[in-house]
Amino acid sequence: MRNRWDKSRLEEIGDDEVAMRVFTSNLLGEEEDLVLHGGGNTSVKGTAETVFGEEEKVLFVKGSGWDLRTIEAAGFPPVRLDYLLRLGDLKSLSDSEMMRQLRLALLDPQGPTPSVEAILHALIPHKYVDHSHADAVVTISNTPNGDEHLKQIYGDEVLILPYIMPGFILARQVAEATRDLDWSTLKGIVLLHHGIFTFHEDAKISYDNMIKLVAKAEDFITSNTDTNTVAHAESNIDGDDCLQIVKLRRAAGKLFGNPVLVRLDTTQEATGFASLNNVADLATCGPLTPDHTIHAKAFAAVFDAEPAAELVKFENTYREYFQEHATDAHQCLDTMPRYGVWKNKGMFIWRGIENAWKLSVTLHSTRFVLFNRVRH
């Protein structure tokens, strides 16, 4: 994990805390292994002047829809800090009501909606808070005895908590777990199957801690991975296969409702993975973290001989999955897969044209998730 800190930028930032928050957020966003699909969120606590000329304590927190890689100051709407802390003291709060309250807490009613994890950011008693869905950390937590592996890696410097869906319940979980805790003893918090938080009064230290803690997880994976167990195979794509890919792209676009791009990864690792006897089981066990289902859907498509014709199987399976788990409040969106396996050929990645720039990010992370194996 590369530390991208750049001293040359500090002079232009000066004492502007929001500018510093933008700077370190962009540094995190440049690491694909930290922020798949633009995920993660950051914040800084400060003050803002009201229309009455009074200073009010606020949390400048990442707004929904912004990407840490490109976020600007406008992406950190000021939210009343005391209001968020009072919300954190409530015994219960529904998701819909929480989002309504977050907008009510905005100083600027036209600002972006604060991150769903804004209350948690407010409850952490440090000025700067960084949160990422680090691939290495979540990969370890997803293995059998993952929490024990993480304790071995981090000792007492990181608090490890079970997965809870982001939002009010997660904030309450962290509040209860840290009620009698000396925060100065912690460098971070790991939420199993979700990601990692770091924090500090100094922006650089919070950022450095993120890089160092994730690097420790990467080192653990490297030292506990037998590279001989990773399958490799040579690609055997021919002209007929290329025609199959064209037909598949057209069929996928119909499911998506717009033109799409499709990429077939035929590297030795991808082809080797696609050649495994149990590849269907591995590819359909779900994404790295539940939060990625928004972008990657809950499982991959698996193809044998004719991908375009077999795409209907994924469509039917996905509709059945939706019907089984959805409530009346849910709406089924497009049924196009986001990644898939063509047995003995390689791995597919799909993206709508408007999101084509994310194609390489998706491919990179999918390969990381599927090819890294931690011994246990």
What is this structure's SSE topology?
Layout: H1 10-13, H2 17-29, E1 41-49, E2 55-61, E3 78-80, H3 81-88, H4 95-104, H5 118-123, E4 128-132, H6 135-141, H7 146-154, E5 158-161, H8 168-177, E6 188-191, E7 195-200, H9 203-223, H10 239-256, E8 260-265, H11 268-274, H12 279-283, H13 293-296, E9 301-303, H14 307-325, E10 339-342, E11 346-352, H15 359-371
Helix pairs in contact: 10-14
Write structural notes for this entry.
With 376 residues, this protein is an alpha+beta fold. It folds into two domains: 7-223, Class II aldolase/adducin N-terminal domain (L-fuculose-1-phosphate Aldolase, 3-Layer(aba) Sandwich), CATH 3.40.225; 239-371, no CATH class. A seven-stranded mixed β-sheet has the order 3-2-1-4-7-6-5, with helices on both faces. A four-stranded mixed β-sheet has the order 8-11-10-9, sandwiched between helices. The chain has helices at residues 10-13, 17-29, 81-88, 95-104, 118-123, 135-141, 146-154, 168-177, 203-223, 239-256, 268-274, 279-283, 293-296, 307-325, 359-371; strands at residues 41-49, 55-61, 78-80, 128-132, 158-161, 188-191, 195-200, 260-265, 301-303, 339-342, 346-352. The chain contains 15 helices and eleven strands.
What would a concise description of this structure say?
The longest helix has 21 residues, at 203-223. Helix content is 41%, strand content 15%.
The CATH class of the largest domain: Alpha Beta
What is the level-2 CATH architecture name of the largest domain?
3-Layer(aba) Sandwich
Radius of gyration, taken over Cα atoms and rounded to an integer in Å: 22 Å
Number of helices: 15
- The helix/strand order is HHEEEHHHEHHEHEEHHEHHHEHEEH
Distance between the termini: 23 Å
CATH topology of the largest domain: the name is L-fuculose-1-phosphate Aldolase
**Global geometry:** globular
Strand order of the largest sheet: 3-2-1-4-7-6-5
Q: What percentage of amino acids are in beta strands?
A: 15-25%
**What is the fourth-level CATH superfamily of the largest domain?**
Class II aldolase/adducin N-terminal domain
The profile of the biggest β sheet is: 7 strands, mixed
Summing up helix and strand content along with how strands pair, one would put the structural category as alpha+beta
Query: What share of residues is helical?
Result: 40-55%
Return residue spans where pLDDT drops below 50 for at least 5 consecutive residues.
Answer: 356-376
Count the beta strands: 11
